């Protein structure tokens, strides 16, 4: 990874609307993210946070607007919500972490000595020395989260997407994993994390996107997480309505200028 921080955006959202079967879950998002940004995505349950990550991953095609990748589509590493992970099988920790190499060397490449060292180093960085031969299904929740971060380290991606990475993780593990997030930033990687702990966001994430289907704020965290926006988010906890009218995607962006992260 290059350490240099680019002045130009690496991702732009242009009046982006994402959803399912033409029913929007994220409305009219505009703004941009620079290389090395640490962006927290916050908001009520069902607000569209995971949907945005799926859109970035290319799993969902925009219903309207678009993602722009000014420097080319980034190599991405993605940590899904724990509830979405089925890791209840007897794979060894070392083998699981080495899967982080897949994007570069393919699934069936022989595990080289260099790879073994990389796996060992990654486990060391997350405080999991000596766990190489343990099976995944024998790990505690916090240990498993450390191993998932070790695999992210091996992916060596420029853009790292984390969906609720610290849910049900104790304070000391959270602090260790947050230190890795800061290290990624120092290395020039861009991190987008879905989070629920607003104090943690204020302390560690300089940028914030507050989503409650509509964009309630996008910019410096101190300006986004203000009582007025949070109160609006609380009021907009209405569940996703599959019978809601299809968004009129021909309408020009309804987003006020203040919501743009320029
Ligand atoms: N595959 C799907 N098909 C239809 N609707 C979906 C699908 N996935 C998500 N949704 C709906 O889209 C809306 C946004 O969901 P999303 O998972 O993005 O919310 P979230 O902000 O990540 O919520 P949480 O904090 O609860 O994880 C929700 O109302 C959800 O029910």
From TrEMBL:
This protein's UniProt keywords: ATP-binding, Nucleotide-binding, Transport
GO-annotated molecular function: ATP binding; ATP hydrolysis activity
Leader sequence residues: none
InterPro entries reported in the protein's UniProt record: AAA+_ATPase, ABC_transporter-like_ATP-bd, ABC_transporter-like_CS, Metal_Ion_Import_ABC, P-loop_NTPase
Gene3D superfamilies: P-loop containing nucleotide triphosphate hydrolases
Domain ABC transporter: start-end pairs: 11-238
Family per record: Belongs to the ABC transporter superfamily.
Protein name (record): Zinc/manganese transport system ATP-binding protein
Species in which this protein is naturally found: Marinospirillum alkaliphilum DSM 21637
């Amino acid at each position: 990874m290059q350490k240099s921080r680019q002045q130009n955006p690496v991702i732009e959202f242009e009046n982006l609307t994402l959803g399912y079967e033409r029913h929007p879950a994220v409305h009219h998002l505009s703004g941009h993210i620079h290389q090395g940004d640490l962006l927290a995505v916050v908001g009520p349950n069902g607000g569209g946070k995971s949907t945005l990550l799926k859109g970035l991953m290319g799993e969902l095609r925009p219903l309207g607007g678009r993602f722009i990748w000014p420097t080319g589509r980034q190599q991405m590493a993605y940590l899904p919500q724990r509830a979405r992970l089925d890791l209840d099988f007897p794979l060894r920790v070392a083998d699981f972490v080495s899967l982080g190499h897949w994007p570069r060397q393919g699934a069936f490449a022989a595990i080289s000595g260099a790879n073994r060292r990389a796996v060992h180093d990654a486990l060391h960085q997350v405080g999991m020395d000596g766990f190489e031969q343990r099976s995944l299904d024998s790990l505690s929740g916090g240990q498993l989260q450390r191993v998932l971060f070790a695999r992210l380290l091996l992916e060596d991606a420029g853009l790292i997407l984390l969906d609720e990475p610290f849910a049900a993780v104790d304070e000391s593990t959270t602090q260790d994993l947050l230190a890795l997030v800061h290290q990624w930033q120092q290395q020039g990687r861009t991190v987008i994390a879905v989070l629920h702990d607003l104090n943690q966001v204020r302390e560690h994430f300089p940028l914030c996107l507050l989503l409650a289907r509509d964009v309630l704020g996008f910019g410096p965290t101190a300006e986004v997480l203000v009582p007025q926006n949070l109160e609006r988010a609380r009021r907009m906890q209405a569940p996703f309505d599959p019978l809601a009218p299809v968004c009129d995607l021909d309408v020009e962006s309804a987003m006020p200028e203040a919501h743009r992260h320029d």
